[in-house]
Amino acid sequence: MDSEAWTHWREIQEGIAAATGLSVVTYDAHGRIALSAPACDPSHDHPICGLLQHQYGHAASCHAHCGKQLAAAAERQEPIAFTCYAGLQVFALPIFHNTTHDIVLLGGKRFTSFESIVKLRELADRLPGDPAPLLNELHHARLKESPLLAQTTGLLEKIGQTFFENISLRNRSELKLSRLLTLLSLFEEIRDEESRRQLYALVLNALGVLFNIRTAAVLSAAGGSEATDAAAFAPVELFGEKRELLARLRVNTTEGLFRRFLDDPKPTSCEVVFELLKSGLPDSISLVHLFPLTRTTPPGAILALFDTPLTRDDVALLGSFCAHFSLTLENHALHQRLDHHRQHVAALTAAIDKIGKTLDAAQLCETIVSEMTRLVGAEQGSLMMLDDEQRALVIKAITGVNRKIVEQIRIRPGDGIAGKVFATGAPLVVADLETDGRVQREKRPRYKTKAFISLPMKLDGRTIGVLNLADKTSGAAFGEEEISLLTTLATCASVAIERVEFQQQTEELKRISITDPLTGFLNRRYFHERLIEEIERSKRHNTAMSLAIMDLDDFKLLNDTYGHQAGDEALKAIARCVHGSIRAIDVAARYGGEEFTVVLPQTGRAEARGIAQRICEEVAAMTISHQLLEGYERLTISIGLATYPDDAKTPEELIRCADTALYRAKDEGKNRVVAYGEEQKR
Length: 682
Prior knowledge:
Strand content: 15-25%
CATH architecture of the largest domain: 2-Layer Sandwich
Shape: elongated
Radius of gyration: 54 Å
Number of helices: 21
Mean pLDDT: 82
Largest sheet: 6 strands, antiparallel
Helix content: 40-55%
Number of domains: 4
Strand order of the largest sheet: 8-7-6-11-10-9
Structural class: alpha+beta
């Protein structure tokens, strides 16, 4: 009890002693009783007791006599009335008993007859020292009738029992409330824990402290693994004295105590030795309490408390806690699944974003394989696409093996695993290729595991390729969630591949629309657009630009002598030579027939003449190797130059000026460069 409770009882004790004229002293008999150390100091104590103990040295005798009766009353749990060796009538009254306190009252200490007074007078004669103080007290002594002592004993018993039981109820209520608040606060901590093992350890330690549990365990089917053997439960977390003894415990659940508990999961206890031994518990376990930790039937986890007595209130409180804890476990599992799902969605979104930003076809295939293997933690992966010309699947990207080793592999639709997946359009998910009836083949040495997945890549209902993944870093097979993620990403990848193909086709169409198919130079229409752009740019920046128009010399004679195919070969040879002689910023175009143009941005007349002269010389020095031109001595060109703004202010004027210079070059003997204005000076 706390000091406040003892103070209150002291007031009650003083009031009863004053009202009855009897002595009352309170002892806590939980342990060895010492008369010199009462729980509550004596009230209205008889002075003769003090004289005998302190002045005449009879403390040991008093303790032996009264102490013996106090201990007997506490042990028997019943009142004892007796006469002490000094003749005083005394009662020892046990009024409260629980696991914490054994309260015993020692009271009375009054003479009830003349015979008892005579007994003390005789004792005084035998005492060493001066008997006067004792005789003086004896002279003033008053008799108390025995019924008064009996009535006082009954009154003290009722009052004391009520008081101490109320105190006990209050303490138990406070303890229960304290435990409840502690357990409730525990749930706040549980929400922040990450692993289930941590949750179990936290709970066992808290319960061990709150309920003074000697040994406890959380049991789970097959020790918490994914196995489905429900015939044995094993500890996943242990606490207390016998944790090492129970570490290898495998509880039998096929019959007996645990079977009944699993069939009807509610708080259960057992202290029958035969039942405990039949359940697989060690013979040193004498008591077990079981509580379900999940709401399923049978429960997936069990709280087991060993060798720890529990009150009915304890069982009720623990049962409520476990029910609440099961909800917390469910919430915890849902949060983990939600976090896991969010991580997968984030990874999937990042992969889709990365694939969507890739515009190069070859790089896109590499990105698809790398993102898919990263998404599911696979070490090996490949992407196979159908080659329309060969009508076979070819590897477009691969990871986990050198590309050179497999780049010549061709698989026809319907052949092998990838070929069948392509032909059927159905995914193939295999956990063990050696035992799966659809495959049944020996694992190749380069693979670490026997599990793989082969997914068709579809677009508008048609299969365009196959994605193959193997060797998860965890060593496990591919699960349903991973298959769902890969299927989603495969669909997005198919769309990305189609988009890149469309883009390539669009770029090709655009290239065809603006280029000459024979030489690969820009065509005449696009040449005019670029010429206008460069003139406008020169206007804005106040810079010069030049235009060169060149013509293959004696082209008609070449066609008439060697034929038009030879003429085409000559034009292609000229185009290659021109392309190799101009700068990256220059724009070459086929103007028509045997005429070519080159737009020279940010180039004045002198620099333009140098570029044109180099082109002219390179063409003349070119070796003719084509068989259709065999016997033809050499190809030459004539070039006319015009410069903006010196020679012309508009595109039309610039073309006319360059064309005029070209005619002058022809007239002067061909195979030369003439700039506009120079022909006017000659």
